[in-house]
Amino acid sequence: MGMFDQGFDAIIIGAGHNGMALGAYLAKSGWSVAVLERRSEEGGGLCTEEVTEPNFLHNLHSNYHSLVGICPVYEDLGLTDNGVEYVHPDVQMGSIFADGSALTIHTDMQATAASFARFSPKDADTWLRLWTEVSGYMDLMVRTLMYAPPIALNDITRALASWGVEDKSEFLTARLRSMSVAEFLDKHFENERIKAMLAFHAAICAYQPHVKGLAVSYPVLLGKIANWHVCKGGSHRLAHALLRVIVKAGGRVFPQVPVHKIVVENGRAVGVETPDGFVRAHKLVASSIDVNQTFESLLDADWVPERTRRDVAEVKYQDATLFNVHVALNGTPRYKAASFDPAIDRAWILNIGFETLADFEQELARVRAGRLPDRPRLNAAVNSLYDPTDAPEGKATGLLRVFAPFSLEDGGADAWNRVGSGYGAACLERWREAMIDEDARTLVRRFATESPLQISQKMINYRFGDWMVGRIHPKSLLEHRPTDELAQYRTPIAGLYLCGASQHPHGYITFAPGYNALGVIAEDMGIEKWWDRV
Predict the structure, then answer these.
(1) Of 17, 157, 303, 326, most Cβ neighbours within 10 A?
(2) CATH for 88-107+319-463?
(3) CATH fold label, 8-51+235-315+468-525
(4) What is the tens place of the pLDDT at every residue in 281-290?
C-alpha cells in the first residue's frame, strides 16, 4: 500500500510558513494532514543556505521577523519549545547620512527619542507621543487588521470610532485612509532625516511611502518598529519547528511532491494529482501558493467561473522588487558615523542612502522605469551582531538589499544575468564608503548575488520577484485582496481554500493568512477553536 493510498482529511499545497501553520493547527485538531511541497526543503521563504562559504549561514529571503510576541501562532503551536530561539536586538535600526551623522532606533524608546532630539527636539517629543499612543492600541489594531478576516475601510473607520480613538487621538483618524505614509510624516514631523528613517521602515515592509491610502496601515507598522527579531541559527529554524509540530501531531510534510492539478468532482475539490498519483482529500484542499498558479495552472478552466478567471488575471504585483547581496565578512563593520552616534555600530538594520522623503519617490520612479542607480541606496543587515552562531568564530554574515526592477529597461528580466554580479559589487562599494577605512579594505571575504529574476525562478510564488505576493496598494489590500470574491479565504469551488500570502494581509512572516484561513475552515467544518483565546 502506498503512502498516499488512504488519502488525508486535508491536503495543503505548499510548505511555506502559512501552509505549515495551517497544517499544524489542523493536525493538532485531530485531522489527518498532508502538506505537499515541490522543493526539497520545507519553509518557502524561510530558507537559510551557505551561498558564500561553508559555515556562513545566509537567510536568502525571510530575514526580519517583526511579529514575535504579537502573532498568536508562536504561542498556540509552541514554536519556541520546538527549536526556535529569537534574539531581540537592542539597537534595531539606524540611518547613516552623507555628512557622517546618524540616527538610531532602539528597543528603549527614550534612547530613540534622544537620537531623534539631536536632529529635532520637537520631533523627538512627537515621536514619544505617537509611539505611546500606537502602543496602547496595538493589540486592538493587530487583532482587527491582521489576525481576522479582512474588513472594509469604512468598517476600520467605525472600529476606530467605537474604540474611542477618534476622540482621544491626535494621530489615528479617519483621514489616514486617504493619506500616504509620506503625507502622514510631513503632517507630524519637521526634520527630513527623521521622516526618511521612519519612511525607510515602511518601505522595507513594502509600504511605498508615496502610495495614497497606505497611511491607514502605518500605525500598525509603527507599533512593531522596535519588535524586529533575529531567528538564531537562521530563519530555516522556524520552518523546522513547524515541521516538528506537524509531525508530533500526526501530520505529514512531503518534500519533492509537486502538485500538478487540483482534482474537482461535481464542483468540489476532492484531491490532487502528483507525480506519484492521485491523493484524495476527504475534507478539503488548501492552497498556500499564489492565486494565479492556483486558478490558472492547477485547476481545469471548466471549474473556474468566468468572474473568478477574469479577476485573477487582473491581480497586480509589486512594481519594485529586491536585489540581494549575501556577504561573508571577516568581522562586524565599524562605521565612520560612530563618531557621531556610537550606537550605529550596533544597529542591526541600516539605511544607507535615503535621506529625504523625495529620495524614496526618486528611487522608486527609477525602479518603475527599469533603471538602476549609479549609487545604490542600501538596506544593510549584519545578523552576526546578535547571532554569532551564523558564521565561524570572529567572522560575520551580511545582507544588502536594494529596491530593484524585475525587468530592466535594457534587456528585460534576462539582463540580470549580465549585470547582476557587477551591480552586487556596486552595492558593496556603497557599503564600504560608510565603513572606517580599515574595515572597508579588509572586511569582505566573498559575496553572492540574487537578482529578482533568480528569486522568482527559485521561489515561484514570488511572481515578478514580489516577496509580498501581491502589490501593497489600497485596491489590493483588505477586502480586495487578492480579489473581492476571494478575499475571505473561500473559493467558488467547495472544499478549496486559500491560505497563502496572496490573501489578507500579505507576505512577510506574519502567519496571518494561514491563521485567518484556519478560522474560516473551523467555521465551515465545525472545528472547536481551541486556539482562539480572544
Answers:
(1) 17
(2) 3.90.660
(3) FAD/NAD(P)-binding domain (3.50.50)
(4) 999 999 999 9
